[in-house]
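Please annotate the following for my students:
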Amino acid sequence: MMNLPEVRGTLTPKRSLADLTWMRVGGPAEVLFQPADVDDLSAFLAALDKDVPVFPMGVGSNLIVRDGGISGVVIRLGRGFNGIAFDGDVVTAGAAALDAHVARKAAALGLDLTFLRTIPGTIGGAVRMNAGCYGSYTADVLQSVTVVKRDGQVVDVPLDELQLAYRSSVLPEGAVIVAAKMVAPKADAAALEARMVDQLAKRDESQPTKDRTAGSTFRNPAGFSSTGRADDVHDLKAWKVIDDAGMRGATLGGAVMNTKHSNFLTNAGDATAADLEDLGELVRKKVYDSSAITLEWEIMRIGNRLGAPAAS
């Protein structure tokens, strides 16, 4: 057992993470830390042995935790990090605030963050993955984030230093996002509410929202050319190349590529993390064999394979 600093929050050794992810799979965290507030988190990281890895975890909506669990400390932010504050058109949200809650509260004040309404997860994850839909992305509204660095320093990081791109960002190793500041366009509150109702209806019609998924499994391929000519470059949808490879409905153990939307890797009831990840890798192989396109994972996979040596 590693030596752990004293905290005001909660430290739980060997805490199963399966029930903390949308996929409901995965092994335990060596230690799960739920800090009381930013000061608690900062003091903990400053005192923690620098060789101990840390992994910030949101609500597990875009994550597969491998069956062997996660070495080091998993940090999960909770009630002390979910505040939402407004100052004119500036919205400051804690990293643990749910995307949907931020969108709804902002809309009620005539501020347009409606693209967040149908995104599962928290503001911290939205920043980390530059989450977006309907043509809008977190990068379009983000001004800065507050992070606690691995050495415990609390710093504000401006938008340009995050290098937000499609489903990606750049953060210091071991840094934990604790809050984000966004500038939201002003709009009519009733119109924003109507838009969100329409977005939810469209999502539920096209996506398996009642199944155990982690959202879109693979990023949409970009800049693909079937001829190699510059004037033939076009974007594709991941579900389309999965369908073309004959992998809609494919199964492995308890994992299935969802028949309603084939880019949703699904726990059909008794899948292991290995089932899910291995089926995803099989899909990637079949898609490459079919179309010479290499799909990139959008879901994060973290931790150790069961039976494999723990990462050092």
About this structure: Helices lie at 38-47, 99-108, 123-128, 138-141, 159-162, 189-206, 238-244, 273-291.
